[in-house]
């Protein structure tokens, strides 16, 4: 039995709607305003920014077309957003065509590599010569 296009695009559609809702929340509640999204527990406990610190501001900047500001807030978040857009597009095209998602069998490896990269970024941004990477 063949599955209709609408059925195949249901999951990507739900993810797109969730992403749009989160983007709208970031536009409505500006993370550049101190405390508007709470405070980073890691930063509060250690005084050191976590690897994700600045990620909401970077995403807000991207949504407003301010790429340079986004890179200054959190360059890893900008790269992650780019990868997420590409991954979503690949998933949507695969779903529309009824084919399996490429690289699906490598998803765990890719997720681990992304997480290791996040931790490395968090450490590298603490180095004195690379303080420009801090939010």
Largest sheet: none
- Listing every helix as H and every strand as E from the N terminus to the C terminus, the arrangement reads HHHHHH
- Principal-axes shape call: globular
- Identify low-pLDDT runs: none
Mean pLDDT across every amino acid position: 90
How helix-rich are the residues, as a percent range? 55-70%
Compute the number of helices.
Answer: 6
In whole angstroms, the N-to-C terminal distance is 52 Å
Alpha-beta content class: mainly alpha
Global Rg? 18 Å
Annotation, overall tally of beta strands: 0
Query: What proportion strand?
Result: under 5%
Walkthrough of the structure:
The chain has 135 residues and is mainly α. It is 64% helix and 0% strand. It has six helices and no strands. It has helices at 5-8, 10-28, 41-46, 55-63, 67-97, 107-124. It starts with a helix and ends in an 11-residue tail after the last helix. The relative contact order is 0.12. The model has no long low-confidence stretch (mean pLDDT 90).
Task: Put the structure in a nutshell.
With 135 residues, the protein is mainly alpha-helical.
